[in-house]
Amino acid sequence: MKREETRTFNPDMLVVARKSRGMTQGELAGALSITSPYLSKIEAGMKPFPETKLDALCDILRYQKDFFFRAERFLGMGPAFVYHRMRQSVSSKLLEKVEAQVNVYRMHVEKLLRSVEIAECKIPSYDLDELGKNGTPENIARTIRASWYLPSGPIRDLVKIVESVGGIVIPYDFGTMQIDGVSQRVPPLPPLFFINSNIPADRWRFSLAHELGHIILHDTPRHDMETEAHRFAAELLMPAKEIAPSLRSLTLNKLLDLKLYWKCSMQAIVKKAKDIGAIPERTAYYLFAQLSKAGYRINEPGEFPREQPTLLTKIVEVYLDKLGYTSIDLCNLLAIYPNDFNVLYSKTPEKGHLRLAT
Question: Which of 136, 194, 201, 342 is in the most buried spot, having the most CB atoms within 10 Å?
Fold first, then answer.
């Protein structure tokens, strides 16, 4: 007679679930009618979770029971997230919520990719120190453009490119405009890019390029990570040799024309011009002052459609259209409630060509 397997409550999953809902230990303890010290010991693995409270826990945190018994780990965000932790303008509670929700997405992706194959990941990583004098963010950006066979001129759809080389781009509401994006690479899973769903299209593109820079350049923390990722993004989107001839005699009108062509903000173009020596620092200062006077530092003119990620929703469509899953089946697979499934995965992508895993 086969013995019934005993499932073990995973305190790490309790921590993930609680933080993903933005709740403190005290708030969850109060909702469960237990003491904060007891909940703290549960999360530390020192006390068992009371079975009589499991239904209430699921209703409060909106995860199915199975979620709390999965043998998953709560992982940190990686080197690039250090910058956000150092910023005083973003609360530690919000950063913990972001970190937890990224963990939940990563767990979802791991589950979903068991039955669906996507493009092999062709996003490399480089050690700038090992490359010596050639190890600059600009050189790496040029190498990436060449290795991905990108033509000269603007990248028309960066999201499409990133997804075609094995990255997954996820629009994400951070609950603040202080964070444009975060990213995470946990092999063998593909790199995940979370970009603020509330920022304009030009900032969206640059943020994705910036996070791509972190994934490629920063396996370990570095002092100038943010500057290096910015330099990588600027060169990837606006190669110096190609944009330089257009950076003479800049005016606001010319900056607007360049923005619509390169799909980068007017401010990013001014900074690029200054960084490559196309304009002196005093000219850049003057142009930034003009942008501020016109109100463009906050709200630039020249909006264009934002690029739309499709890969993750295409993966979900394979389950629904080819594997015979219902939305309820997917909720059970991911251990989430239907309302959350609809929020996360109910967008309809363009039809694509993904293969079933064999």
Answer: 194
Place of tokens 């943020």: 207
Give the Cα separation of 341 and 318 in Å (integer): 15
CATH 1.10.260.40 domain position(s) in the chain: 1-74
pLDDT at 287 over 60: yes
- CATH code, residues 1-74: 1.10.260.40
The lowest-confidence range among 120-129, 151-160, 232-241 is 120-129
- CA-to-CA dists, residue 98 to 93, 163, 172, 231, angstroms: 9, 22, 9, 25
SS3 of residue 117 by DSSP: strand
Which two structure tokens, joined as six digits, stand for 247? Answer: 């950076």
CA dist., res. 141 & res. 156, Å (int): 16
Q: Read off the pTM.
A: 0.92
Query: Is 60 exceeded by the pLDDT of residue 352?
Result: no
